[in-house]
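User: My collaborator sent over this chain with a note saying "see what the structure looks like." That's all I know about it. Can you take a look?
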Amino acid sequence: MPEASIVVSFILTLVVVLVTSGLALFAIAHAKNRIILEQRRALEAEQRFRRAHEAFTDNAPHELRTPVQILAGHLQMLGDLDPRPEQGRILARAQETATHLGHLVQGLLDLSSLAQGTLALNPALTDLGAHLAGLASSFEARARTKGLKAHVTMDPLPQPLVCDALRLSQALEALLDNALGFTERGAIRFRLAAHPEGRAWHLRFEIEDQGPGLPPDWERLLRPFEQEERSLRRRRGGLGLGLPLAAGLIELLGGRMGLEPLATGTLAWVEMRLEEREL
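Assistant: Without extra context I'll predict from the sequence alone. Here is the result:
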């Protein structure tokens, strides 16, 4: 009889262990399925958000560009009506604002195209020196308007070079605009060093400002819509498009771009290699 009791106890204990183990395995499986389901829902929500974000970034700039173009056209027509001096000054400010808005919309379009890999280049034989001279002249005028000194030094370039001069100018203009926006006093330097390498030329552009400098985590500024801390953002304005747009365009052009902190201000540099060809 004692042996039978031991056997019964063992069997009961085994049953309890098996039932407990089964319940534990069921609970684990249920929890695992719940986690998988939650992860799947989170992934689906993230995918929906990404699709909605892509649709917005695709459509919004196009929807904005048409009314901006219409506005610019109407302002131009008003200018052709021979306005009085005071009206002309108001109209000039309105046209400047419309131009700035148009640049923002175009920047959004170009960033969207860069992200999707659909931004096309149009490399051609071009007098790059003439393009850069125009860019430098505009930069000097804007610096004077803000009460800043502009120092421009450029090595002479051969003619012609193979380059998408418009996209390169767009990238450099974004960097110059960034320097002008953050420099409250002092000077900004715009330099070009050019060295021949056989039938090609190595170009290095440098834009040195006297702004507040770079934050420790400055790499994030190369991502779209990232900006400086709030007090600087209030003074500077903008949407945080300039640096990522410039970086994307320079990479597309086959070059490199970087930022370096200075004792006072920031150095933005661009390097690229362009081919020289006969007309």
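A starting point for your reply to your collaborator: The chain has two domains: 1-119, 124-275.
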